[in-house]
Amino acid sequence: MKDSVPDFSDEQWQFLNELQLEPDVKSKMLVQLMEKGGFKKKACKLDIKIAENALKEGDHENAWVRFRLAADRLMHLTEDRECMVWFLSTVQKLSNLSFILGKELTSLAQYLHKAHDVAASLGDKRSHALINMHLGRLYYFSDRRSDALIALSVGLSEIEELGDEDILDQSAGFLGLYYYMQGLFREALVQLERAERVSESQAKDQLVNPLAPVLMGYCFAYLGEFHRAIGNLDSNWRIAKERSNATMAMSLRVILGTVLILINREKEAAVHIDAAVKEAKEKNNAFALYLARGALALKLMKSGQTIKAHELLTKTFEEAAASGFVRQYSSPWILEMLFEFERLGLEPIPGLSFYQAMDKTIKENNIHLHGVALRLIAQKKIAEKISGTDAKSDLIKSRDYLERSGDSIQFSKTMIEMIRLELSLGNQKQARHYAQTAWRALGGYAADFFPDDLSYLLESEDYVKHSQESVERFIELTESMFPVYNQDEILTRAVIATNRFFDAERGGLFWFPGGKMTKNPELRASCNLSLSDISEPGFKNFQKFILQAFMENRTIIKRNMVPHPDLPGRAVKAVLCLPVEVRDKVRAVIYHDNSYLEDCFDSLNPDMISKVGSHISRQVARIYDYFRIREERNELISEKSIQDAALGERPLIYKCKLMTNIISQLDKAADSDSTVLILGDTGVGKELIARRIHSMSKRFKKTFIIVDANTIPETLIESELFGHEKGAFTGADQQKKGRLELADQGTLFIDEIGEIPKSIQVKLLRAIQERSFFRVGGTRTLHSDFRLIAATNRDLTEEVRAGRFREDLYYRLNVVPFRIPSLSERAEDIPLLANHFLSRYSRKYQRPDLMLDSETETLLKKYNWPGNIRELENIIERSVLLSSGNRLEIDLAVAGKSQNNDSFSDHPTIDELQKRYINYILDKTVGKISGPDGAAEILGLKRTTLLARMRKLGMR
What we know:
Blueprint: H1 10-18, H2 23-36, H3 40-56, H4 60-74, H5 81-101, H6 108-122, H7 125-140, H8 145-162, H9 165-180, H10 185-201, H11 211-222, H12 226-242, H13 246-262, H14 266-283, H15 286-302, H16 306-322, H17 332-343, H18 354-363, H19 367-383, H20 388-405, H21 408-424, H22 428-442, H23 446-449, H24 460-479, H25 487-501, E1 506-511, E2 522-527, H26 531-534, H27 540-552, E3 556-558, E4 574-581, E5 586-594, H28 606-647, H29 657-670, E6 676-679, H30 686-695, E7 704-708, H31 714-722, E8 723-724, E9 736-737, H32 739-742, E10 747-751, H33 758-770, E11 772-773, E12 782-783, E13 787-792, H34 796-801, H35 807-813, E14 816-819, H36 830-844, H37 854-862, H38 868-882, H39 893-896, H40 910-924, H41 935-939, H42 943-952
Parallel strand pairs: 6-13, 6-14, 7-10, 10-13
Antiparallel strand pairs: 1-2, 1-5, 3-4, 4-5, 8-9, 11-12
């Protein structure tokens, strides 16, 4: 700690270290000391560090407190660019935590508005777009829906302009809300499913938009896909518990209970909702409690306890308003309850009577709620015997809106009201047509929602027709999976499609490599089924059905299963396993199960299963062949590029025993994936050594990426290493992949790693350890499987002692170190190298007659060679150009010759003087620019300043 904050006295540090305090308490005390001592920037940095550590531990309450303290301090430090960058990141995390915890949303606006201005002043287009999204979400839950739509629309325009994958990943949850609040559930799901994929790939301490999984559950339910809603909510609830995200788990549990109420599974619903209410009260989570009480009101309503539902809903809206959720609702059953309260003559909920809600809903841009409201208004007109024509007009509009929104249940409810209206008018033929439409729209849940008193309008052929149409829709859906360029994504889409077709809650594709039997097949794609799920002891009971389907090449269906009381994990009631054939051989099994819906898979018949199984096998075979051919093509391209590169590669020239031993050890180390650190003076050939290691490794067919830290300006090193996203900073006009990303599957060579700024060393260390990183301006985790080779002419142990290089990074690099000897240590190789360079430059400059005599060889061996092999090569090239006869004329005195004492005899310009002096210093340092005793240090300039001046002077 002392090294990172050197402004405190030794006595202060000693006092802190002697205190017997918990690390967290000590850190908070240190923040207070910094604040009082005037070190506000350092206090902010430490507060952010405490908050990040709290996130890793799953302590969202403490993280929220520390992020808020940091945001308060950073609000007043916006003159400092680094503080401005911290502020943008901190505010976005504070915003997500505020929604996760349901805390003080009313005070969030001040931070977001300030961040909006800061992003604009920095030219950070990415943060500016995302802050608009955060504002849109806040406005939505503050009952400012018009403002919310404007903010989200502006953010969407900015995101579309940036248009890269990372910003689309970051904004997916917000875009889901944008479409959701308009009642466009299919469009919302596209974004929300993307947000879920991003969430699954992120580390535990990475905050995700807390609304995304909640909205996804609602969307599935509104679209009538209750099995998917239940499976998705149950899966996300379990993941939230695994990640110790109690607040998220509470909210998801409430929505899961709500969906179970909608399909009349009151007993299972009560378990989840009652537990969520208890947890929400204990944690003082206003958002989860708001959702839970709304679900309880719905439960009371469905059980006929309308008055109790009315009392609870009134209390819920009052408490929600106090927490910043001003009269917030988006569920159609809230409108339906208000209609029922009005019908029974109950006191209106303050500020939200039936007529107020209808008026408000009709004016807003939500086609879903608009359609529900129009039906309820029509029902009221019919009940009050107001013009039937007006009521029919409202129902037709309601039908059109709800059809567009995709809510099959509400659409069918409107169709049912249209049926009753037509029957009252004596139009039985039209009523029968509407009945068939409603039945088809309800799909597998028709028996649950279609009224028994209207079933006489249906014909038996309607049931058969539905089954045929569903198979056709399934085939059409899976045919649309191409073209997709990611194999896992295609397989995942196939699993989602079968999951949807079979009305399953979970699903996975288990792959048997080579089509051979194994007790542990690979989970290649899944829907609501994770690796942690299949690793639970209880899953072995279901895995045996997967193995049975593979061995016997037949569909396995198990229903009414009784869970084992002593085994942990999910209680599964039904299982379906479908073998998948590729080239007349079973290579995979698609697995599905249900835990809540015991009557699942009942509608399946052998003919339907056979059609679906055959189609899935054909699709997977297409995927298998497509990617096999593409991989073979890529291998050919890769081999050709390696061969082409090898033609121009410079060989290692040596014969001395010292180099022979080193190369032998290098070749042994090359076969592993261990990090190699190459040490040696400037010009000894460290890059050639690195290329040798790569060419002898298992990665020799893949890319060899070089990063020369000595030639990259400090301000660009981070971008060069990790890449950047479009709009991450002024001038970032397009997305750029970094060298780490380009080195995936290959070798990354960082030359002069000692020149990496200390501020970037932390990020580099993490990338080396985890093989994952973020681009500058991005939050999407990128993975790169690279082998690292580093080189330096510095003494890194001395650099660590001096505080210029991180000790943990040094030890991470110093796994397999090699010191390459200087040229003077391998004198017997000098004639060999000299003749090699002579041969090269004789051909280049058309001087084939030049020879290197023994006398010259002796002179070369006696010379000290401070510039090593690079200096030898330069001297040989110069000598080839300047020699007049057949004998190579080498003047070694030129290398050590001092400058003319009379530097001003030719009246040079200021620029010429600077150029001469810089050349003089470079001769003294043998071309070394940075580091101890480098030219920059002698001249009293920063390395980047010296390089810039040299470019201006036309120097190389």
